[in-house]
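Methods: example folding runs. The two proteins below were folded one after another, and each record is reproduced exactly as written to the output file, sequence line first and structure-token line second.
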Amino acid sequence: MGRHDRIAQLARLRSAQDGGLLEVADLATGYGRSLRAMFAEAEAAGCRVRFHAVDTGSDLDDDLLGDERVRSIIADLDEPLPFADAGLDRVVSVNVAEHVADALAHVQDCYRVLRPGGLLVLAHSDWDTTLFASDDDTLTRSLVDRFVSSVPQWAERADGFMGRKLLGLARATDFEIETIETWADTHRRFDENSVGWKVARGVLAAAADDAQLAAKAAAWVAGLRRLAEDGRFLFTVTDVALVLRRPEG
């Protein structure tokens, strides 16, 4: 079971008590992978649901974008969420907190838009736990450290330690903590569509301003390719997920 399937299960999509639609916001939805997994969960549970796919731009897969049960919303996630107070049953926030200006304000705003009894699934990869099998442990540690401490060019901000900070954020709000889970999915592929490759590209970008280190990083990536060809490549990163409930009453 992968991350998106786990997130979908944690969202606990069950029919609304009044028989109406369950209103679910998926923040920074991207292509809609978590959204797609939640669709499957809702259908298996016989749950009528409307998804609000919120992101700074619309990259949703065409079939999801054309689905009448999906409402695509373009929004700045540094601003208050574009929902009325107590208007949603579920909010899903995956790998959002490190990129917003105020992570605590983000969690508090998720509280605002949830109905009493509603759930927030707050999840984040903890990039400092990144694990690459390689032939040079010392270099790998150095490169991962640089990756964790850098801000990618496409983002205004980043925090490679955000996964371990989620509990502290939750404790600073009025949310009730339902569950805390961690997992580290195993990835054996190393090609342009793989998670390991995407993180390795981040490592290369983080080393780009140091010519000597950039050369070592390029050789390191070539070594990862050789490991993959030999069937010895392995990549994991720990994800942390909290299920938070807005109290009743």
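Second run, written to the same file directly after the first:
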Amino acid sequence: MRRDLSTRPFRLALAALVTAGCVSVAEAEGGPKPEPPAQQEFQPAKIDKNGVLILVRSTLIALDQANKTGNYTVLRDIAAPGFAVVNDPARLAEIFANLRRDKTDLSGILALEPQLVAVPDINANGMLHISGFFPSAPTQINFELLFAPVNGQWRMFGLGVNVGASAPTPPAAPPPAKKPEKKAEPAKN
């Protein structure tokens, strides 16, 4: 069962939009546009729990270190080539400025177990998609990650992180109903 994270404002550094197809370097430079991909088919990824943990934690810790140092070069350099081409360190600093400004500390993920909102899957483009959250109080860390196969390794191709409430917030209480005004009744003798 997928949990809808799209309603939360994720800051994404995606080298391509999965739902809209990939933007190639040639297209960005005004070259011929590729045909839109066929409807994407998803299949479960052949990766064990430890592999998922390593990918999620190492990616988010790389982001945490980039935010703390202000240096996004390593984050870009450990990513897939398609990600690095469209995301220079300055662009990554801009994308994740809100996390840096808020001094968001992601290091707590090292001690927590991520809760996946869906089984990791591989889309029609061969990308591994992992999404979930780290439950912590008073906030939780939501993530959406996309990895591309590069020389037999999964390398980051997309990264979205959001810090939100750790529990659902109840809806606002409706305003109190006005009591009907009583009409003055004539005095009884």
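Comment on the second run: The longest strand covers residues 153-165.
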